Amino acid sequence: MFKPSKLSLALLSCGLISASALAQSAEQANTASQQTANNAQDDQIEVIEVTGFRKSLIDSINAKRFADTVTEQLSADDLGALPDVSMADALTRLPGISAVRTGGQAAEINIRGMDGGFVFSTLNGREQVSTSGSRSIEFDQYPSELITEAAVYKSPKASLIEGGVAGTVELKTASPLSIDQDHKFNINARGMYNDRASEVQDANEFGHRLSLSYQGKFLDETLGVALGYARLYQPSVATQFIGFAYNGVKDIDLVDGDTDGPIYDDGSANPERDIDKEYISEGFELQHLGGEETRNGYVGAIEWAPSDVFKLRADAFVSKFDSKTFARGFRVKFGGENAAYANPVIAENAMVGGTINRTTKSFTRVETVNDDNQDFDEIQNYGLNLQWQITERLTADLDLSYSNATNDFRNGLLWALVAEDANAETPVFDTNVSLSYLLNGLDLPDVGFNQADAFTDTNRLMVSKYGIYPFQNEDELKAVRLDLQYDLDNDFFSSIEFGARYSEREYSNDRSLYQYGNDGAFSSREAPLQLTDDMVEVVNWEGDFSYFPSYLAIDLDSALAAWFPNGIPQPVQTWGANSEGVIDNNSSWSVLQSGDVFEKVVSAYVMANIDTEIGDIPVTGNIGIRMVDTDQSSTVYEDVGGDVSAGATPIVDQVGLVNSNYAFKRLGLKYTDYLPSINLNFRVTDNDQIRFAAAKVMSRPEINRLVSNLSTNINDDGEISGNSDNNPFLKPFYANQYDISYERYFADTDGAFVAAFFYKDIESFVQTLPIYNFDFSANGFYVPETIEDELSGVPVTVDPVGTYTTAINNEEGGSIKGIELAYTQIFSFLPDLWSGLGLNVSYSYTKSEVEFFTDLGGQTRTQSLPGLSENVLNATLFWNYKDFETRLNARYRSEFVSEQWGVNEQVVNFDDEIVVDMQASYDVTEQLSVLFQVNNLTDEPTQSYFGSKQFTGTTQFFGRQFYLGANYAF
């Protein structure tokens, strides 16, 4: 029976022990003297100095090898050792894990074909809240320099906090009492350059990264202190085309006397058609994005272990991520079905090209946009942990934690439109608008504008509207957890663990607005602003976009100072009212979409740890069950038509307007879940093992989907309908999942091979669907018995049964299944020069029968599960020789479904992508090393489409990021 001793595991984690030395049993290691153990090592092992990436890789392999669940591990030997910009980048190097890039960098991670909403995350074993406004953790908020360990649990155990159907990501910060030296300092500094920044006027080309850390032990190694600081300053750069969804229909086979008819994507002029109308897009955007992102991260920990039976740890992690960016260019509105369409090019019953002219009934226009966006994110995590060995067999772990996340996103939008003459006493909007375009799939489109010369002419272009639409979130979590472990003298179970946890979470979502002017024409009451030469600069497109027309970049501060000489009014949460004092629905959303979510969770578990033999095969693992009791609720404003008996009360907004039509309520539900799990590890030989895991898992719905925003409408015939994007009665996603894997670990820590198969049976998904024959009254909605016909004044009886479109738990469910292969090989058997050569490669194939429907590309199409790429490949080739180390990493993911960047609530298909990074470093001395790094080596763009590649979504280029720096450790 093979049981690694504490001594053996410690040596293995440093990559310094051979397989024969590992065969020494735990009992022998504990009873032998230190001198005897040292002599045995001298006889059996060849000491090899292992450092850098190779050591990190070996540590990760060994952590996976001896874990009690199906897991992937990532480790660093010190603070600042991981090279990645954030933990999002670092985690994507693990098998079965991919990322969605935002601004060119990984932000949200997907695990086994499931998006970030199914991924649960902890920091030092504690649940975290997110700045995303949902449950999905934005891992780019976490500097890799401040994290020393990361684990991805693909199979759960009862002691893990519930929440991850896809998996649970555990991040850990430094433990100062665990370091070898008494004191460790680390300084890391890098300069950064983006090679596309020169294409974006006013964008910054240079940035930097800086990290400082200290770990120390005092008072005979009973007191430990760790402090760390990491700063990232980088340009935010992108050049992009964004196509809009196909949300209109029109018969454009023959329009405006075009007797030749349309041209179809198959090249024919008039194929047989069974459908009378074609789908038309809302339009598209062409934009330059620039600005800067600044992230400051702080970590601290104090550990006190006055005896072998007691340890106290207090730690803190704070990250502030501020982004100040601009978006400039064009927003093209086709104008809906009332516009005039000529020479249409049709693909799959939708228009992908043609000429569009404004009519007296359409809103066809080209807006010059100069947007100013500010995003201020902050995460705070604090914890206090006490570990106490009460008796020889019983240990206790008490943990108190607090997590807070705030997000303040302020988008200031400035619209400019073409006037016939900007110098006129009363400028007139130029309605002579004609534009042409032709989509080219994933390539950039062909475009043309009859007003192109006016886009750079201050005698024609005028500012028509300014708006600010903040989106503010705060998420707060308080929790207390108690875990107990009792060691058993048993041939089957080594110990039993049990514990309980209580948490309170409160999420708030606040909307507000200020807007002045008109984005579709010139307002008679709010006159447009005439631009002067000192307010503007001409911007030319470069590179791939160089054939697009130039435009004016407007200095926001000077333009607004001229338009609002007494100061710019600030956004407010308001009902809004027109000149007659009637509530304005264009503003009331700022009140109705604001709200709070409250969540209380009580959980308890019991788990037995297995350590036995079946035949001659050692078997370890665990079996247990977790009980979870959830109480969730949300505030809601329900329109009860001013009926006081239904709870209507006067509600005052931030400017003093009173609305007495609504009742303020708190809605929600309680539910209890039982989540069993089992993990078994069969150690067939010293180097071969087979794992099996099975569990029931859950992921709660995104917390912002619980903010109720219900609304009902009763037409003149007394027919009722309702709509709500969210639902406070949503229950979690549930799945039964199974894992089996074979793991082969090579001798002398030279690598490993892992083959795994997984299967998830998903019971339900949250989808927004219509519910027919829905009884509004029976489900707690306010429904008046009658309404008065506006014209005749005659009472009309209201039917309480109608159609309610809302987010629901779709019970159809489906399966997700796949395989994962991982191979790591360090070629230490090669001649000296090449003995540091190594390869780390993983591949995953994921398939799901789950399908969703979308009509964003016109006709209804099926889409796969968001976040699912059938093929994900990750490969790293590395080599170190003496003081030099280099590695090349490539990450490939096939097409997948996710939310389109920059366009709210448009879930689209993203094309496959390959992201390549490289890094080289040289140790000048034992303390000083220098580094050169390139991220996105091939300048891979992000590209999306609506169901078919003929319907272009996003084409976005970010540029390459070059880093040059040094690391000093002592």
Structure description:
It is found in: Cell outer membrane. Residues 69-167 form the TonB-dependent receptor plug domain. It comes from Thalassotalea eurytherma. This is TonB-dependent receptor. Belongs to the TonB-dependent receptor family. With 970 residues, this protein is mostly beta strands. It is built from eight helices and 56 strands. The strands form ten sheets. It has a 22-stranded antiparallel β-barrel. A five-stranded mixed beta sheet has the order 1-6-7-4-5. A hairpin with a 2-residue loop joins strand 2 and strand 3 (105-111). The radius of gyration is 31 Å and the shape is globular. Mean pLDDT is 86; it is low at 1-48 and 254-274.
Features:
22-stranded antiparallel barrel, disordered N terminus, 970 residues, five-stranded mixed β-sheet, mainly beta, 54% strand, globular
Layout of strands and helices, then pairs:
Elements: H1 6-13, H2 19-22, H3 26-31, H4 34-44, H5 52-65, E1 71-75, H6 87-91, E2 97-102, E3 105-111, E4 119-123, E5 126-127, E6 149-153, E7 167-172, E8 183-194, E9 206-218, E10 223-235, E11 238-243, E12 248-250, E13 263-264, E14 278-280, E15 283-307, E16 310-333, E17 340-347, E18 350-357, E19 365-389, E20 394-418, E21 434-440, E22 443-449, E23 461-468, E24 471-487, E25 493-511, E26 514-517, E27 529-530, E28 536-539, E29 551-554, H7 556-563, H8 585-592, E30 595-614, E31 617-639, E32 651-652, E33 658-659, E34 662-683, E35 688-699, E36 711-714, E37 719-724, E38 733-745, E39 751-762, E40 765-775, E41 786-788, E42 795-797, E43 799-810, E44 814-826, E45 837-848, E46 851-854, E47 861-864, E48 871-881, E49 884-893, E50 896-899, E51 907-910, E52 913-923, E53 928-935, E54 942-946, E55 948-957, E56 961-969
Parallel strand pairs: 4-7, 13-17, 37-43
Antiparallel strand pairs: 1-6, 2-3, 4-5, 6-7, 8-9, 8-56, 9-10, 10-15, 11-15, 11-55, 12-14, 15-16, 16-19, 17-18, 18-21, 19-20, 20-23, 20-24, 21-22, 23-26, 23-27, 24-25, 25-30, 28-29, 30-31, 31-34, 32-33, 34-35, 35-38, 36-37, 38-39, 39-44, 40-43, 41-42, 44-45, 45-48, 46-47, 48-49, 49-52, 50-51, ...
InterPro entries: Beta-barrel_TonB (IPR000531), Beta-barrel_TonB_sf (IPR036942), Plug_dom (IPR012910), Plug_dom_sf (IPR037066), TonB-dep_rcpt-like (IPR039426), TonB_rcpt_bac (IPR010104)
Signal peptide: 1-23
Domain TonB-dependent receptor-like beta-barrel: 454-937
